[in-house]
User: Fold Tetraspanin from Nothobranchius kadleci.
Amino acid sequence: PLAANLLAKVGQAASDNIKSSYGRNADLTGLWNSTMDTLKCCGFNNFTDFRNSPYYNSSTSMYPPQCCGNTNNPCNQTVAESTMTAGCFPKIKSLVDGNTVVIIAVALGIAALELCAMVVSMTLYCRIKSTMA
Assistant:
């Protein structure tokens, strides 16, 4: 239940982020475009995440081209619905699930490195303190 609640909050934050900033904030727009191009997905859940976003409102109710399979045709609701491009969340979740061992190994490696750095710094501190006394 805790993980499901966390994922729901992350999903809501991502959708809200798209609605408020996609098309207005160049960095965020570029990040979403890159993610959608790489994973071949559209929005966090689907194309409806872009409704009422600055991009949608300024482009006369058009969706990003990734939502329509990057066709040369304008990406309106009809084309987006017929293309049925999946949202990015399931693809990101699948990517994380497939690389869980690597993610855990990297996290443990970083933790071990931090622990070693703390031991070295405490050893140096004690030696410096003993030479000054």
Observations:
- The mean pLDDT is 92.
- The two ends are 56 Å apart (CA to CA).
